[in-house]
Specification:
The protein has about 160 residues and is α+β, with helices and mostly antiparallel strands. Helices cover about 40% and strands about 30% of the residues.
Length: about 160
């Protein structure tokens, strides 16, 4: 499948997920900025729905951004390899470096690790777990937080 068509398909799937299956995605207004073989980049704007009482981004909104940035590659590579994927997060750890007082960009550069997990799941038929890292940056390009997400995939 052409990469541009694939990107449009993933954006559409993300919209549908936020509309019908996972309303929190739609509620936060999460946007897909970039998706390729190695990196995924999403953005959440700091607005009334995403901020806490300290006027910084609420922990839940940060978790939503990390969730999607870490999980996009599972859908991307499953579609690329023509497989259906059963996908979940098995664990998460995070470190907050500073308050997120502006729009935040979530970047995962572990696409290769997720693709390897999907290929292993295709060949073994088993559920495979892999750790991915998501870095969160504010508008000044300062590191705000890091998330380690344990991605669990099984291809059918």
């Amino acid at each position: 499948m052409d990469r541009q068509k694939l990107l449009k398909k993933v954006k559409w799937q993300l919209f549908l997920l936020g509309r019908f299956k996972i309303p929190m995605l739609g509620y936060t207004g999460l946007k897909l900025i970039e998706l390729n073989d190695t990196s995924a980049k999403t953005k959440i704007r700091l607005k009334r729905r995403t901020k806490n009482h300290l006027n910084s981004m609420y922990f839940g909104a940060l978790a939503v951004g990390a969730d999607v940035a870490a999980g996009l590659h599972a859908f991307y590579f499953a579609t690329l390899h023509g497989k259906k994927v059963s996908f979940a997060f098995k664990g998460m750890s995070c470190e907050f470096i500073k308050r997120a007082e502006s729009d935040c960009t979530f970047i995962s550069e572990d696409g290769k690790k997720v693709e390897d997990a999907i290929l292993e799941s295709i060949s073994t038929g088993e559920r495979i777990n892999t750790a991915t890292e998501v870095k969160v940056y504010d508008e000044e390009n300062e590191l705000v937080a890091t998330f380690e997400m344990i991605v669990s995939v099984k291809c059918k």
